[in-house]
Amino acid sequence: MTHVAIIGGGPGGYEAALVARRLGAEVTLVERDGVGGSTVLTDCVPSKTLIATSDLLTEVGSAAELGVEVPSTVRADLASVNARVLRLAAAQSHDIEERLVSAGCRVLRGEGRVEAPGRVVITTPEGEETLDADGILLATGAHPRVSEDARPDGERILTWEQVYGLQEIPEHMIVVGSGVTGAEFASAYTGLGAQVTLVSSRDRVLPGEDPDAANLIENVFTRRGMTVMGNSRMAAVAREGDRVTVTLTDGRTLEGSHCLLALGSIPNTADLGLEAAGVGLDDGGFVHVDKVSRTSVPGIYAAGDCTGVLMLASVAAQQGRIAMAHLLGDTVNPLRLAHVSSNIFTSPEIAAVGISQKQIEERGMLVDTTILPLAANPRAKMQGVHDGFVKLFARQGTGTVVGGVVVGPRASELIHPVSLAVSAQLTADHVAEAFTVYPSMSGSVAEAARRLHRLL
Ligand SMILES: Cc1cc2nc3c(=O)[nH]c(=O)nc-3n(C[C@H](O)[C@H](O)[C@H](O)COP(=O)(O)OP(=O)(O)OC[C@H]3O[C@@H](n4cnc5c(N)ncnc54)[C@H](O)[C@@H]3O)c2cc1C
């Protein structure tokens, strides 16, 4: 029987474990902190649970337009919200562990490292165990980047892993970093009623994302009372009593009650024995992998954030599944980044799939683009939705849909027809011809596709 050793129990690791069992392998998975990984315990699941409360409050805030009077005292009890967040995360971790065990995986709580190709050493509270494995999967994830001059204290200066200890809505939260994580938390705390300042080192928020979506969300943020500071690079963060001071590189200072650092992630690849085993890493410490999750050493695979390929739970899981299919001789479909759909859980949400506008411009692709504001959609009018759009990209000549962006409430759901079109290589006409419900937000997806129709 083929023996697989998996280091790390996030989606990269646990999805791989389930696939490997299904393909008949003996599986040992070692996890340091809790099955489900950062995804379930500190990152994705907790943040989206917090955002669910914030979204509810944001919706309630616009109830008057729909004729509902809501008392101005409606507020979230952050202690209860965070207790729910942590309960939900722990329950999900428990569910996943049960699934792994009932599938026949051996799950160990401890720390794993590669001693040599084909050999893993596991340190548990009970002692050390050496494991010979035919295949090793590294799925060790990443942790928040912090800086010497901005040391989190877990109370007032926080990483995204530490915010769930807050018992009261921060009076003034300064969020440093305007990438996806910074934007999501800035949006969430605004929705929860905190004063929020978002510090961005670039000229706009979400610098890596679709420019129309980023401009729209920045307008919404400022309209909702957030202060967005562009071209402002953090130099240091200090705490004095219950105040924090953020100093910018140009000497300006900001004062708030809390500071959340969203400065990106560092891969968990140090002290894993990778260099000695010959596993190639890049300058940032990310493991080099190919499209079937192979590292530079035969028999050693890697998946998820430790590879830095695309830091999403869905991509981590897919890389893990692909690795096991490759190792265990099943049909292998290499990772196709051009088909990945993703969502930014701001209010409104920003979802995207396929080729981006930036890639189109960089590659000089011949693509027709259409952008349709949601405000014209009848369902949006009924629901009091004013912000959002559907944007589609289709190849000139063939009309094949190669990408799209949806901004709006539940854009994470609305993107699915576009994702289907991208993965099945449907044309804009195919998308336009599929019936949508009247009235529905998805009517705007079909209408945008209709606008891409060209006479032959
Ligand atoms: C705030 C935030 C929100 C996010 N929201 C989303 C979202 O909505 N959707 C989405 O798709 N992605 C989201 N992401 C990204 C997503 O969380 C990551 O891409 C995902 O966690 C990667 O999964 P992974 O399996 O690679 O690593 P992880 O989930 O980090 O799991 C790795 C595990 O390995 C363990 N480990 C590390 N070293 C060892 C060792 N030596 N021995 C044993 N165990 C070890 C760690 O303890 C950890 O539990 C978010 C990220 C952040 C920061």
SSE map:
Elements: E1 3-7, H1 11-22, E2 26-31, H2 37-41, H3 44-61, H4 78-102, E3 106-109, E4 111-116, E5 119-124, E6 127-132, E7 135-138, E8 142-144, E9 157-159, E10 172-176, H5 180-191, E11 195-199, H6 211-223, E12 227-229, E13 234-240, E14 243-248, E15 253-256, E16 258-261, E17 265-267, H7 274-277, E18 300-302, H8 313-327, E19 341-344, E20 349-354, H9 357-363, E21 367-373, H10 378-383, E22 389-395, E23 401-408, H11 411-414, H12 416-423, H13 428-433, H14 442-450
Parallel strand pairs: 1-2, 1-7, 2-3, 7-18, 9-16, 10-11, 10-16, 11-12
Antiparallel strand pairs: 4-5, 5-6, 8-17, 13-14, 14-15, 19-20, 20-23, 21-22, 22-23
Average pLDDT, to the nearest integer?
A: 97
Helix vs. strand class:
alpha/beta
Please report the total strand number as a whole number: 23
- CATH-level-4 superfamily name of the largest domain: FAD/NAD(P)-binding domain
Binding site for NAD(+): 177-184, 264, 305
Protein name: NAD(P)H-quinone dehydrogenase
Domain Pyridine nucleotide-disulphide oxidoreductase dimerisation: 341-448
GO molecular function, one term: NAD(P)H dehydrogenase (quinone) activity
Brief summary of the model shown:
It is built from 14 helices and 23 strands. The protein is an alpha/beta fold and 456 residues long.
